[in-house]
Amino acid sequence: MLKKIKIGLLHGINYIKKNLAIRIPCIYLIPKPQAIYLIPSIKCNSKCIMCSFWSKKDVTLSFKQWQKVIDNLYDWCGPYVKINISGGETLLPGVMHQVISYCIKKFPLTGIVSNGFLIDKKEAKKLIQKNFNNINISIDGNTKKTVNMIRGQPFAFKRSRNAIKYLVNEKNKQKNIQKLLLNLLLWD
Ligand code: SF4
Questions:
Q1: Separation of CA 42 and ligand 1 centre (Å)
Q2: In angstroms, rounded to a whole number, what is the distance separating the alpha carbons of residues 77 and 61?
Q3: How far is it, in rounded angstroms, from Cα 36 to Cα 82?
Q4: Can you tell me which atom of ligand 1 is nearest the CA of 51?
Q5: I want to staple 157 with a disulfide (CB 3.0 to 4.6 A). Which of 143, 144, 152, 188 is the partner?
Q6: What is the DSSP string of 118-177?
Q7: Which residues, listed in sequence order, are joined to residue 110 by a DSSP beta bridge?
């Protein structure tokens, strides 16, 4: 509870500073970021028609370099800045995985975006236990046909839908208050 009040206060102060800084030119009023978006890797298991990440070579920093970036962000912003991690698919093994694990230890407000393809019951349990601030699952369409066509994968709709089901069940089981968000795009 106290932690939540502290986060709220820090965000509130930052918000006021941001609005004052627009009106009064003063170096001390420059606010720190309230949210930071990281894309540690563009490696993806989807082949979406509106995105070319999956067809590109994944050129990224090494984990050691990412650690430095994250440590610098921590020193600058403190632990209560929102960190949103997306890609690429965030649950693929490799640098992405390492960056997420490192971030969640340093920043309690870390959240991830996923297409949900890799979330089975076991993975859902692990994800809810990690206590992310938010887990966003994207579904691009409202019918099986559309989702599979947009994602370029015949299993896309089924896997994303199941991922949501597993996460909700696990969240209820663990009585966890983290946010599960559904990014829904309607194309039909
Ligand atoms: S899931 Fe996201 S990153 Fe992957 S191909 Fe689709 S839009 Fe691109």
A1: 8
A2: 21
A3: 6
A4: 8
A5: 144
A6: T--HHHHHHHHHTT-SEEEEEEE-SSHHHHHHHHT-TTHHHHHHHHHHHHHHHHHHTT--
A7: 83
| Structure-block tokens of residue 166 | 């597993």
Residue 35 CA from chain centroid, whole number: 11
Please give the helix or strand (H or E) that residue 83 lies within, else none. strand 82-85
Reading the block at residue 137, the tokens are 């699952």
Contact 155, 129 (CB under 8 A): no
* Ligand 1 contacts CB of residue 113 (under 6 A): no
- The answer to whether 146 touches 154, Cβ cutoff 8 Å, is no
pTM of the model: 0.85
Q: What is the mean pLDDT of the chain?
A: 89
Q: What is the pLDDT of residues 38-64, one digit of tens each?
A: 999 999 999 999 999 999 998 889 999
Greatest alpha-carbon pair distance for the chain in Å reads: 55
In whole angstroms, give the CA distance from residue 130 to residue 176: 10
Ligand 1 geometric centre to CA of 90 (Å)? 10
- 37, 39, 45, 46: residue to mutate for ligand 1 pocket, most atoms within 8 A of CB: 46
H helix count then E strand count, the chain? 6, 5
Per-residue DSSP letter, 27: G
Nearest partner of 98 among 44, 62, 58, 45, judged by Cα: 62
Contact (Cβ atoms closer than 8 angstroms) between residue 74 and residue 106: yes
